[in-house]
Amino acid sequence: MGVEIERKFLVVSDDWRAAAIGSTLLRQGYLSSNAKATVRVRSRDDAEAVLTLKGQVEGLTRAEYEYDIPIEDARELLAMAEPHVIDKRRYLVPFGGLMWEIDVFAGRHKGLVLAEVELDSESQGVALPDWVGEEVSRDDRYNNASLSRDVSFALERD
Question: Is the dihedral of CA 52, 136, 20, 121 positive or negative?
Answer without folding.
Answer: negative
